[in-house]
Design a protein that fits this description.
2 copies of one chain form a homodimer.
Chain A lengths: L20 E5 H14 L15 H9 L5 E3 L2 H9 L6 E3 L7 H4 L7 E5 L2 H10 L3 E5 L14 H10 L3 E7 L10 H22 L3 E4 L13 E2 L9 H4 L9 E10 L5 E3 L14 E2 L2 E6 L4 E5 L10 E5 L3 H5 L4 E5 L10 E4 L6
Parallel strand pairs in A: 1-15, 2-3, 3-4, 4-5, 5-6, 6-7, 7-8
Antiparallel strand pairs in A: 1-9, 9-10, 9-14, 10-13, 11-14, 12-13, 15-16
């Protein structure tokens, strides 16, 4: 078990599990983990915990040899370190709250991304000891201009920090549908990052993600997390990973007019990529605590039935829940094997 | 103070508040509360806690005379009862998990909506003592057929339950933009509910919401919650309520190319009604933990600045956060007056 929950306090089966509930199909999860490890074994993969926010899941990755992690928030780093998973953790994001990480630096190797004088000053004065220079490679988000990378590295080294290298996230290319086009554009983005690396030094070139895991051949380490659970968005790409995460609801109402209603809605889902999908019919619409479904065979559904929905976007869906329920089958009578707390949420 | 937080442990000002953070502008909040109370005073309003999920906020409503509440989940009911706010609480939703409510029925007056034999059986066997018959009035969601209401009421009374009346939610009419059209259609929906009431009996006709607060004149009590905090969606209607809830982020990166990045993204927002808005420029796009903004005056923004975004949909936004920070001004140097825990989340 992964926290204070004991086996006897687990719901026996999915039918006994309170809904809405996030369900992880363990055989699929493990297959995704193994498939990625063929391309990016051991510490060459730096799993991104923002996609799953669970130290139990991070522990499973560490047990498989992936002992370095990256994160999007200080709280994720704090949680990893508190769980004994701080061998090599990277805040792959800018923060002014670096003192939170400096305070726990005796217990872990913590590296922070910086892209400006202000975020570098925050790292220095916050007691952070290692940084990566974050370089903008085409995504309109964080990252310094490639021509400013060496200057920031010099400032960091002058202040006594270890500059371990560079990072640059080609997030704008994750969903380029055509593989050849994606590969070309990833190469162009990584040329920018390698130019920065040449001027910065260090051993690390960190970047990439699930969508570019097999087209990005220039990073020394890949930042990927979504591949483990997947979602409808990533599933539209030609990736060898399969969806292992579903949202389970209970049918609470059946209308003679042909729709059924489950107790899983907007508050259990990330909706930025639209409605979830359902294998047995159409999703009509989602409300705060409901989803109305249009079954292909309305007569087959009864109040009390369990229903699995496939979320559009994994990261913001996970962040709404307190735990994953781990199974090896999605039938209502399948046994619940474990509970993995989603303990790295919030900020 | 509303929980174990003491005044001295509050951040002094918004500049010291960790971000992303939900901020409630108290003067606007109180004005919204007073405006609604003019139309629906005291217990004629049954505030819907699903919109704000905070017993501290519910306490403020109770202090203003609104001592009955409605909720969408068993956990919301449990939390209200535990906080001493269980004088008259309604689960305005179907549940098979009624035993959770039966267990706390000695300490509160708990009423549960039922719309089928199965959910009624769950209430009976779960030890629930009072029900409303939930009637479908046009929204394709929960609610029995109007012609089935009397039968369910008879079954409930035969089992010894108190049938307090009916409820029916005209949620499909909340966003009808034309007032006259909205009023006509609300009247037609409420005719269905009054027909059901005539056959069911009891003293309660419960329905309505923020969008129909002044067009629904047939309910004995209004179920409204969004009016307190409001959002961009409700703000498009001709309502006398103003937005009192903003999402505050910190600028963590400024690009010479004209965009700035704040540390508040998809995981801090309900996105089913699209991007948030910003008073000082355009929202370019939201990522998991970032929003990229295009300021009208890019040169005016620096790393460390605080930014307020206006969420599209209040309910699923609130459900992502641990607390509201209460202020009477939105400048970074404005004092934080209180912390209201969002303690009714999850299921």
């Amino acid at each position: 078990m992964t926290d204070t929950t004991t086996a006897s306090s687990l719901p026996a089966t999915l039918r006994q599990t309170p809904t809405p509930a996030l369900v992880v199909h363990l055989p699929t999860f493990d297959r995704n983990m193994a498939t990625m490890a063929e391309s990016w074994p051991g510490p060459s993969l730096r799993p991104h915990v923002k996609a799953f926010k669970s130290t139990a899941m991070a522990r499973r990755l560490a047990d498989a040899g992936h002992t370095s992690f990256c994160a999007a928030t200080p709280r994720e780093i704090e949680g990893l370190v508190a769980a004994g998973l701080g061998d090599d953790v990277l805040l792959a994001n800018e923060t002014l709250d670096a003192a939170r990480l400096g305070r726990i630096s005796d217990h872990a190797q913590i590296t922070v991304a910086v892209d400006s004088d202000v975020t570098l000053d925050a790292a220095i004065h916050g007691g952070v000891r290692s940084v990566l220079i974050d370089v903008e490679v085409g995504l309109p988000r964080c990252g310094c201009d490639v021509d400013d990378a060496a200057r920031l590295a010099d400032l960091a080294r002058a202040a006594g920090l270890d500059v371990r290298g560079v990072m640059g996230y080609e997030g704008h290319l994750m969903m380029v549908m055509d593989r050849a086009d994606r590969a070309r554009r990833v190469e162009a983005a990584m040329e920018i990052l390698l130019t920065a690396h040449a001027s910065v030094g260090g051993t690390i070139v960190s970047g990439g993600g699930t969508g570019t895991f097999d087209t990005n051949r220039w990073c020394t380490e890949l930042q990927a997390g979504s591949y483990l659970l997947m979602d409808n968005q990533y599933d539209t790409l030609d990736l060898p990973f399969e969806k292992s995460l579903s949202l389970m609801g209970t049918v609470i109402s059946v209308s003679a007019k042909g729709w059924i209603v489950v107790d899983a809605g907007l508050k259990a889902l990330g909706m930025d990529h639209g409605n979830p999908t359902w294998d047995h019919g159409d999703v009509f619409f989602c409300s705060d605590e409901h989803t109305t479904l249009l079954p292909r065979e309305p007569g087959e559904w009864s109040v009390g039935d369990r229903v699995h929905l496939w979320p559009g976007h994994v990261d913001p869906t996970v962040a709404r829940h307190e735990q994953f329920w781990v199974v090896d089958g999605l039938d209502a009578d399948d046994v619940v094997l474990d509970r993995w707390p989603i303990d790295l949420r919030h900020w």
